[in-house]
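Appendix B, record 7
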Amino acid sequence: MENKKYRLDKSAFRIQTFEEATQNKEYWLSKSPAERWHAAWYLICCAYGIDPDNPPRLDRSVFSMRKNG
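Structure tokens (predicted):
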């Protein structure tokens, strides 16, 4: 996924009615699951400042596993 492919148009946002929000939901439900995942991943990367093509690796030294018994 290319980062240059998407641009956030901040002038496009406005308060929506419930009917408009329902139409937005219908739009996303008409997309394939893969397209929804790509859009969600892009928004997550924008929110956290992550490069979508090179995400950071999980720091496994922070977590530990043990067997309950």
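Remarks on this record: The chain has two helices and no strands. The mean pLDDT is 81.
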